[in-house]
Amino acid sequence: MPLSNEDFAAIALTLKLASLSTLLLLIICTPIAWWLTHTRSRMKGVVGAVVALPLVLPPTVIGFYLLVAMGPNGFVGQFTTAMGWGTLPFTFTGLVVGSIVYSLPFVVQPLQNAFEAIGRRPLEAAACLRAGPWDTFRTVVLPLARPGFVTAAILGFAHTVGEFGVVLMIGGNIPDRTRVVSVQIFDHVEAMEYAQAHWLSGGMVVFSFLILLALYSTRRTYARVF
Amino acid sequence: MSRTSNLSEAAPIQIQFEVNHPGFSLDVDLTLPGRGVTGLFGPSGSGKTTCLRCMAGLIRPDRGRMRIQNETWLDTARGIALPTHRRALGYVFQEPSLFPHLTVLRNLRFGMQRVAPDMRHVDLDHATHLLGIDHLLGRMPHDLSGGERQRVGIARALLTSPRLLLMDEPLAALDQQRKNEILPYLQRLHAELAIPVIYVSHSTEEMARLVDHLVVLDHGREAASGPIGEMLGRLDLPGLHAIQATSVLTGEVLSHDAAFGLLTVRLHRDRTIGQTIRLVHPVRPAGTSMRMVVQARDVSLSLQAQADDSILNRLPAIVTSLSNADDPNHVMVHLDVEGSVLLARITRYSSERLRVMPGQRLYAQIKGISLLR
Questions:
Q1: Which end of chain B has the smaller Cβ count within 10 Å, N or C?
Q2: A211 part of contact set with chain B, CB < 8 Å
Q3: What is the predicted ipTM?
């Protein structure tokens, strides 16, 4: 196989980035999706639109603002500097933050669909059977929304793996730290190393196909984003 | 568990709710009996379900109070509003609302497990037996018929040993056959458990068969309330006027004549000795309390006590009032029989020929009676 150690490092970094981002996305997006499902607030439309923004914005725009915000003069950068963490651009942590913003709608929307499909009735039934809100969430909502969580995790993971523009804007191209597969492919093509580009690109096609196959064959109600 | 135990001590349930929504408002202040079945009746949009949901805490009224057995569940003036899961209530929804990911048994245990063991008064075997669902415990909800699901839903609510059972049109989503399948279970529930029930429905049949006390709501206000026997006799109430007029008589079994298969039931009100009614019915133990329904059109009037005909039941009655029946050629005569209200639907011709007027003493002949329990 013509893949170099650098290629394997890029694959490992991509999987690590996608796994960590997916985990954090599920934790962050569950309350957002829950709020969007059940709120009667007028802010619902605004929040829903903000969450969906990454769907339509060019990754370079998201990357640009993230770079500005996380830079030494941005509000995130000032906060992280004050906390003694330094600035986030060109670090793995910065990539995780970028991935979370970039993949947010892909996780929020399947969860929101799942919560909406459950409706209020099972929650009311659980409350009338003495289950408090946390109890209900754990014993009724989580099991009933499991397909939604699976869809959300798969989409979040796959979308993070496929990320390129945001990574390039805020992460650059540092081996073992920010050089993910999509960037590695770009480098190979720039260097006219088409054989390695083929291997990595082909791998991405097969990987993405398998993920979507799993998604489409288990669930008909995948994300509303398509 | 006996229905007759502690009845005199059952404190009334006091509710006062004020809900203001655009286009709908509820403003009720009711004292409901702390035992037996109370029916909330009224046309759709009258606020029955809203009222029930306020009791459950599923809707927070703008202003209100609710007290049950010396426990305050709601008092907006004092900032008290117990969340639903802290209220010892059972709720049966119109659609059974079983948890689809749990077996019947785990559905039944869901609420039971969340009640402290020393607060559990209804055991699993009793509830499953009472509702005839012993054989379904291992099944998933989607494998059950609509009627079976609703029975599981009722048992699940009972197993939390509620102080109050709220039922929101539990039979409305079922066809007549399924209704007939469940009604006997509800009647057994009524007979065997001492849990007060608030029963929302717009079916007079269900009301006549199950309910002891009736509250009629109209446009979010209380239109009338009282014992079922008196209420079904009133034709001026919203939602009730359109139905076939029926009277409800209560009594207890006196004896059974095996040779003719005749059951003798003594009508009573406040347990005074009263008239008897005879009807063909399988034997029931003496003293069993019975509820009988008489259609107004099965009652005819006679000025004489004696007549040589096939009518079994001929009761002395006093005319209290006359009102319009469903068509102009008939008259609805309201009678007082031993303190119970009895309706007779007779032709206007007969009414004028007998010169029926309020205060008149005559005899009500009852052609058909159905025993409810």
A1: N
A2: no
A3: 0.80
